[in-house]
């Protein structure tokens, strides 16, 4: 499963082009529903704006879903440039609305493409990012005499221990990148000589700021 960058938080920036105001609001969205709710919220906030141009990318790579709209601007001058800049950013699970307040001077088609592209680049330049890492929550039960070695192995594979219980055996609960699971499980099998019980309790995405 692929790791990729996402927005760490919602971010906003305004630029001016020939007296028109371009306000870019960008944030994380983990589903099409999330993206549409984000877009509707920003449109409601700026309901008196001339245009609210949306775009989003849900997922990443070959499975990503994309959408954009010109929201009344001439065809191809707003939504497509915004989406194109997003596509080049390397981000997934991202939604953006570029709000425009018309300043009285027409920009022309080329000017609109440049303005919406610049507005998107500008907010991406200040956007804090995080990595979305698909992770297992794992419960591992093993005898005491293997505890120190296994704890070190978990650290080597960048697992994050969230709980330890010491009863008849040791129970370690930890979070691990799904891509590291098979190699870690193989090492545990060798070290303990099959004297262990391992269960994947949950699988979800860990969000880690970068």
How helix-rich are the residues, as a percent range?
25-40%
- The CATH homologous superfamily of the largest domain is termed Impact, N-terminal domain
Shape: rod-shaped
Order of helices and strands: EEEHEEHEHEHEEHE
End-to-end CA span: 19 Å
CATH class of the largest domain: Alpha Beta
The whole-angstrom Rg is 23 Å
Give the biggest beta sheet: 5 strands, antiparallel
Number of helices: 5
Total number of beta strands: 10
Second rung of CATH, namely the architecture of the largest domain: 2-Layer Sandwich
> Kindly state the mean pLDDT as a whole number?
95
Low-confidence stretches: none
- Structural domain count: 2
What amount of the residues lies in strands?
35-45%
Strand-pairing-aware structural class: alpha+beta
Topology-level CATH name of the largest domain = Ribosomal Protein S5, domain 2
List descriptors:
5 helices, alpha+beta, 210 residues, 5-stranded antiparallel β-sheet, Alpha-Beta Plaits, 2 domains, single chain, Ribosomal Protein S5, domain 2, rod-shaped
Q: Briefly, what is this?
A:
The chain is 31% helix and 39% strand. With 210 residues, the protein is an alpha+beta fold.
